[in-house]
TrEMBL record:
Lineage: Bacteria, Pseudomonadati, Pseudomonadota, Gammaproteobacteria, Pseudomonadales
Name this polypeptide is given: Uncharacterized protein
Domain of life: Bacteria
Keyword match Transport: no
Keywords: Membrane, Transmembrane, Transmembrane helix
Statement: the UniProt record of this protein carries the keyword Plastid: no
Organism, as annotated: Phytopseudomonas seleniipraecipitans
Membrane-spanning residues: 27-47, 59-78, 90-109, 129-160, 180-204, 213-232, 261-278, 453-478, 508-527
Length: 532
């Protein structure tokens, strides 16, 4: 038992603090209510989609579908664990199911806003739109590399020093903090790159159909570069928005069901393969610390204090951020020396030694590890968001929290803010991760559940108002951009809703590229109107 668990025995018995394993729920009223609400919302979503698949252009519908998948279904499946973990499980169930029911009601009342069934084609001015997207993406990447030097990025570590990839990821995203660099990279990974990859696929498709060699090469080059650039921070999960955009674009732009199914299947297989390959590539052997100089990077961007805290927190558990504990002390020594005014030559080298080479595993072992990665990925996508949301309600039940200070911009408005994802992780996430208390680790959840957890009824109503307001805005926006760009907007809405399941409303719009995606589409619409 780890030190944290020993010091907080009152919480370790809670089922949601460990990996949730499926078991038949107890046949209680709580279970049947959750199951009934889940089936009702799922039926409504399926009926509305079959009636008109362009209903996906309504953010309120996509948000409702994601709530059903990410929260209602797990709540029904794990009702027993939730009842055993929360003092007031009905409050959590009311927020999840009640919020879903009200969004479904809003969808019914506002059905006149729904897009009518239509046939969309890829925009005619593909090259103008394509180059405009590439330019916007280049600006975003240059802004990120302005704040995070290339030799300090996660992609650099992945290529030249793979066992420090996760440390480099934390440096390039978390330690840098909220800045123009991280905002621009969030815009690129969640908005610009998905659009660029989708357009690249369509350029290649048209090149194959019409034997246009140059446009095909352009699509291959641009799409490949866009994918590599997404990984510049060392965060493989940022490929998911591109997969969602590909699925949306392929579904609406393809003329037949055979082409739809084939392209969607290939898009999913490609991204899943890329995610697994990333992990396998990261675990190859090499000299740890031979290329990526964490200490020098910390001095260069002035994050010495934050870097010290990060390395110290990594000593709480072996293999924090995937790094064996024996390698942490040399990193600390070099960081202390450089941050104290030492030179790169006079300080310890930072070369930590040889790492294990997981790439030498047999084919059977590699296949087993690949399946493990896929299972972990699915668990992180479909179970962990629900689990973390329960932690937030547990925290609200056991700790005193000033709800207004948990909201975005509270520091500017109230002079003080509370970082709930960090506090929740330190109390519950560190138990789930068997003692990992890395200083940059957080446990974020959807604003749709966080606001009610800490603000009660007022937070619940605020979350609903935000979703409905954005839904109305996007209805107006969709009518302006035109039919051919509607599939791209649908892809952007799906990406936003996916991010909304694990993040704050303002964070998704600003840090995760929600607003940036709308700006890119606006530029596309203006270009189309100019050329037509």
């Amino acid at each position: 038992m780890n030190e944290f668990a020993q010091s907080d025995v009152s919480v370790i018995h809670l089922a949601v603090l460990h990996e949730l394993l499926f078991e038949l729920p107890s046949l209680s009223v709580f279970f049947f209510i959750n199951l009934s609400c889940t089936l009702a919302i799922a039926s409504i979503c399926v009926f509305r989609f079959l009636r008109c698949n362009y209903i996906l252009s309504r953010l309120s519908f996509c948000f409702l579908a994601f709530i059903c998948i990410f929260y209602q279904m797990p709540l029904a499946l794990f009702s027993t664990q939730v009842e055993a973990s929360l003092q007031q499980p009905w409050t959590y169930a009311l927020v999840v199911n009640g919020g879903a029911m009200l969004l479904a009601l809003w969808g019914f009342l506002s059905r006149r806003f729904d897009c009518k069934q239509k046939v969309s084609h890829c925009p005619d001015q593909k090259f103008g739109i394509y180059f405009a997207t590439m330019l916007f993406g280049a600006i975003c990447l240059l802004a990120y590399l302005w704040g995070v030097p290339w030799n300090c990025t996660g992609l650099f570590a992945l290529i030249f020093d793979p066992w420090l990839t996760l440390l480099a990821r934390e440096f390039g995203i978390k330690l840098i903090g909220s800045s123009l660099s991280t905002y621009m990279f969030g815009a690129y990974a969640n908005a610009v790159a998905p659009i660029l990859i989708l357009l690249s696929v369509w350029l290649v498709r048209d090149a194959l159909l019409h034997r246009r060699v140059l446009s095909g090469l352009l699509g291959v080059f641009g799409g490949g570069l866009a994918i590599v650039a997404v990984l510049v921070s060392g965060t493989k999960g940022l490929l998911m928005p591109s997969m969602l955009m590909l699925v949306a674009g392929c579904y609406f732009w393809c003329a037949t069901w055979i082409s739809r199914i084939a392209t969607i299947f290939l898009a999913i297989i490609f991204v899943m393969s890329a995610l697994v390959s990333f992990e396998m590539f990261k675990e190859r052997g090499g000299v740890v610390g031979g290329a990526y100089d964490f200490a020098a990077c910390s001095v260069e961007v002035d994050t010495c204090q934050e870097s010290r805290e990060l390395l110290q927190s990594m000593t709480a558990r072996d293999y924090s951020l995937g790094l064996p504990g024996v390698f942490v002390k040399p990193l600390q020594d070099r960081l202390y020396c450089l941050c104290s005014g030492g030179t790169k030559e006079s300080c310890p080298t930072g070369i930590l030694g040889d790492s294990p080479n997981m790439s030498r595993l047999s084919a059977t072992d590699k296949a087993g590890r690949s399946l493990t990665f896929v299972n972990a990925l699915l668990n992180r996508m479909l179970v962990v968001p629900f689990q973390v949301s329960v932690w937030h309600f547990m925290y609200a039940e056991t700790e005193r929290v000033e709800g207004l200070k948990t909201l975005p911009f509270s520091r500017r408005l109230l002079g003080e803010s509370v970082n709930m994802p960090e506090l929740v992780y330190q109390k519950y996430g560190s138990v789930y991760s068997l003692g990992d208390r890395t200083s940059t680790s957080t446990a974020p959840t959807s604003f749709f559940l966080a606001y009610p957890a800490y603000l009660g009824l007022a937070g619940f109503l605020l979350a609903l108002v935000l979703v409905i307001t954005l839904d109305i805005f996007l209805v107006i926006y969709a009518r302006f951009i035109g039919e051919s760009l509607l599939p791209i907007l649908i892809g952007g809405i799906i990406i936003m809703c996916m991010n909304f399941m694990t993040s704050d409303f303002v964070t998704v719009l600003i840090s995760h590229g929600g607003v940036a995606g709308l700006i890119v589409l606006l530029i596309h619409a203006l270009l189309r109107k100019r050329y037509s």
